[in-house]
Amino acid sequence: MAKVEKSADEMSFLDHLEDLRWHLIRASLAVVVAGSAAFLAKGFIFDTLLFGPTKADFFTYDILCRLSTFVGLEGGFCFDDMPFTIQSRTMGGQFSAHVWTSITAGFIIAFPYIIYEFWKFISPAMYANERNTSRGFIFISSILFFLGVLFGYYLVTPLSINFLGKYQVSEVVLNEFDIGSYISLVRSSVVACGIIFELPIIIYFLTKIGLVTPEFLRKYRKFALVIVLILAAIITPPDILSQIIVAIPVLVLYEVSIVISRIVIRKENRKLRKQKQ
Fold first, then answer.
1. 7-11 contacts: CB < 8 A, separation 24 or more?
2. pLDDT by residue (tens digit) across 133-192?
3. What's the CA gap between 82 and 135, in Å, rounded?
4. CA-based end-to-end distance of the chain
5. Strand, coil or helix: what is 176?
6. Beta bridge mates, 176
7. Exposed site from 35, 94, 177, 194, fewest CB < 10 Å?
8. What is the pTM of this model?
9. CA distances from 183 to 52, 66, 152 (A)
10. Residues 219, 213: Cα–Cα separation, whole Å
């Protein structure tokens, strides 16, 4: 006898949990597969990507050096070498760094599939027209996430490394950083920016379920500005220029989120008017 598929309305709470479990298992397997590929590409992941921002010829430093020279500013982005070293202080430090970096890389690479599994879990609860209008959800979410990752890697990470790597309270103290500390800085900068760039998607869903409105977002814009500046201060070095550079795209995303919320509300109101007719 053929197995009868249950609709979203017929599924019990335990059925939903079982369904969620399989979505999480498949998403985790995707991370493991992508992470395994990253584990094998150790040279590229570490020498080219991870330690790229420690080199004076890194893309961001080159651009900022040219820009500061062009405007006649004596900036700290023109240098020949970073005044610090990276070392491992424990026996398993390098292996542990290799494993956790591979897992992080696996999560970033597999993000579109993770979003796909998330969409597959929530889509049965949507109306047919809602599923049709949200088909671009996976693509847009992935693009925003990867833009955030690139922003974190090419801007936030170099700014943080340039500031913290050169900072000294005294010439007596040498900057010799543990590999775990360095990787944690890069990982937090990249992943945090990737998640922050998902703000328009988050606002879209919050608007759909009625927790957020365009009026609410406009009313509390000033508070949002303060929160954005606090976030910028957390993920960037404590200098005003770096915080402003990071805050600007987040504020742009906030304004885009207001527009998205307004569009969602407009569509919902149009749908209600049609139902009344």
1. 7/124, 8/124, 8/125
2. 666 788 889 999 999 999 999 988 988 888 888 888 888 888 899 999 999 989 988 998
3. 46
4. 45
5. strand
6. 85
7. 94
8. 0.83
9. 12, 28, 13
10. 10
